[in-house]
Amino acid sequence: MKTRIALLLALVALPWMPGQAKENEVAKAMRLAAERKAEALTAASRPTQAEVSVDTTRKGNVIPETLFSQNVNVYEGSGDGKDAAYNAAVTSMGAKLMRFPGGGYSEFTDWENYKCGKLSWLPIDMAKGIAFAKAAGCHLQICVNAAGEWNDQKHSVDEAVAKAAKWVQTMNVKPGLYYTTWWEFGNEDYDKLGNTAAGGTEYGERYVKFYKAMKKVDPKIKFGFQCQHDKTDFTAASLQALKKAHLTPDFLIEHVYPIWMQPDQGRGANAAPTWDKTLYANNPYVDARILDIAGNFPDEVKEKMDKLVADNLDPKLAGKIPVWVTEFRSVLELKYDDFVDSLFCAQVLLKFADQGVQGANIWDLKNGYNAKNICDFGLLRSGANAGLPDDNPKDSPRPTYYIYPYLAKVFGRQLVACDAPDYAPMDTPGNKVRAWASKDAEGDVTVFLFNNSPDAPAQATVKVAGFATGTEGKLWTLESAGKTVEGASEPILQRRDITVNGQVRPDPASLPGPGSPIPVGNTFSVTLAPGSMALVKVPKGNGPILAPPPVVKKEKKSEPAEAGATASAAKPLVAAAKPGEVILQDFSMDDKGAFSPWKDDKGSALTYEIKDLAPGGKPGEKMIAIKYNHVGGGWCGLFSRAGDDWAGLEIGKPKSLVMRIYTKDPVEFGMALADDAKVEIKLDSIQTQGGKWETVTVPIADIPPAFSGKIPGFNLYLKTVGEGEIDLDRITLVK
User: Fold this and answer.
1) What per-residue string of b and e applies to 654-666 under the rule 16 or more CB within 10 Å gives b?
2) For residues 632-657, average pLDDT
3) Any idea of the CA torsion for 190, 196, 200, 206, to the nearest 10 degrees?
4) Residues 6 or more apart from 521 whose CB is under 8 A from it?
5) Residue ranges per structural domain of the chain
6) Domain 64-409 identical in fold to domain 573-734
7) How many CB atoms are located within 10 Å of the residue 268 CB?
8) Confidence of residue 617 (pLDDT cuts 50, 70, 90)
9) Which CATH number is 573-734 given?
């Protein structure tokens, strides 16, 4: 890293000499970008300081053991209870539940005869699934077949209901194979029944029938219902069907995959989609995005779920029905084996704990190695590819596996207040440390610390209040190790192995291990290496008790509306849309996540600010002021939410896009309007005259037939090279 900084500084320090040709605009932009990058790298290498305040007198949620549950699959043959190493690895994780028979396979298999029809090759049946759960010390968490397809045939709803009720009977009553409390209704049925309001209505009506039949067999079971935050039409209609039936589900199911990446398109910049040119696996900027959103994405998901429940079931139930995240991970699927995924998943699990999430199942224990894409969803290596070191030895863990023995067995169950400095996103200077704290059954305190910066170490000064501490604690430090998929040592967050207290990939049977001694007290320090995490257990003792600090309530950037209210209730008064128009964005609401800049790793950059409209703006009218530096051969742009909330904006098939815009000089840029399936309307060349406010109208002639007509947001991306500013007042679509 130091060599790279020195080289950059040397390159950008060369002055222009008489007789040399003056640099053109592209070269100038590249030089300025290199200077800024060198300055950023120099600043990033300096250690940062973070004061972490723990107050043991302020209790948070109790973490349920079900938060560390797992997913297994009937298509993976070693989950039969006979693989001793596999059994031991799961036991070491502290897992208590296994979701079975595994995601999508629940929707086209028959629990009484998994090996039938086109699936006669499946290696696992019900008996083997039970044997594996018992051998690993777990119970099952069963997904029933909601769609009614098995043995290569579609079956009636009544047949599917009878099949599910018989499953409850067999597991829990007679013969009582293995008592199962937690049951789920299908898996992502917006794919099976249709991601539409009609599909959602069918899902809700089916749930009512399954619920009554299964509860009749065993009233004590808990039956979950999928409330997917990003499938709003489907979920809203399904909840309305429950409201009509006067039925409240036992728990809500959510799947969390915050960033989608197409694995078959490769890992380099050429694989980035048109709607986000930064989104490719080898881009360190993606690592930064992953860790930035680990702290806020769970809150955004919860807000959307609560609003869906309030608007479509009952406002009084918003935030009251238990939530279970039965699938989650970072960036599908190329990043799962990188160390960054372990940092993301640990922080997201702790955010779930903060929220009071009832349970969570990471995807998944074993999945099967994809030799073409050089990746695996699984936490444990399959060993199925003898010639590939990345898939061997069999049953050996990947980095994300290791967070579980420490969360389940070292970190306590009782959360206590833990405050760190405000977190600064990766593209801004400031604190990159996050922290959580807990008390365990023995009364000891554990602090879980994360340094998300891949460049700079962090010095965390921890103050523990309301607790008489001992003097010697235990430390477990988890850091990246090995090489990246490209065989390089950097970026460190893309390395594919792990060390725990300096030991590379320790044996699961040895976990969590005794820890290393560390001096502690009511104030102590921990040095966190770049891109690392650490747990410190502080034993109770006879030391002085530090008085709890005063509670300071942090102001939210935007207060949520009351349950059941629409987001537009708090919107400033601005001009309404004219007949035949849809307001794509008027920039009047700057709530969390509504706008997000993106950039390359070549020095391109973009910032924005929401300002009062000037000149001539009326009270409440806003504009967005975008400053950019677009390096030749690179890219930068801005994602903007469509409309005033996250429910998605219905735009149909518009004829043109109209915007009021100011640029000092002529500027060319493009826009992409993509639906949830990433089918997009692309306007690749929008040009301004410059020097004045102007209204630009762009005809829309080419709309893909598969375009749904509903978009969550849009991307604006620069084509003009160099530095400049764009002021946007309002963007509308004309139908």
Assistant:
1) beebbbbbbbeee
2) 87
3) -70
4) 464, 469, 471, 543
5) 47-59+414-538, 64-409, 573-734
6) no
7) 12
8) low
9) 2.60.120.430
What tokens does 8 get? Answer: 């950059």
For residues 699-703, give the mean pLDDT.
90
Contact 611, 622 (CB under 8 A): yes
Asked if 202 contacts 193 with a C-beta cutoff of 8 angstroms, the reply is yes
Residue 571 has pLDDT above 50, yes or no: no
| HSE-up of residue 184 (Cα within 13 Å, Cβ side) | 33
Pairing of strands 97-100, 139-144: parallel
Q: How confident is the model at residue 576 (pLDDT cuts 50, 70, 90)?
A: low
**Helices 197-217 + 232-244 axis angle, to 10:** 50
DSSP result, 443-500: S-EEEEEEE--SS--EEEEEEEESS-B-SEEEEEEEEEES--TTS-S-SGGG-SEEEE
Going by C-alpha positions, the residue among 99, 44, 102 that lies closest to residue 73 is 102
Strands (E), 64-157: 70-71, 97-100, 139-144, 149-150, 153-154
If you average pLDDT over residues 604-616, what whole number do you get?
Answer: 84
Q: Which two tokens stand for residue 40?
A: 């950023």
User: Which range, 115-129, 266-280, 572-586, is most confident?
Assistant: 115-129
47-59+414-538 carries CATH number 3.60.20.10: no
Domain 64-409 has CATH 3.20.20.80: yes
Q: What is the pLDDT of residues 340-389, one digit of tens each?
A: 999 999 999 999 999 999 999 999 999 988 888 888 999 999 998 888 89
How far out from the chain centre does Cα 376 lie? 18
Count Cα atoms within 13 angstroms, Cβ side, for 675: 18
pLDDT surpassing 60 at residue 3? no
Beta strands in 359-452 (DSSP E): 359-360, 414-419, 433-439, 445-451
Polymer length in residues for the chain: 735
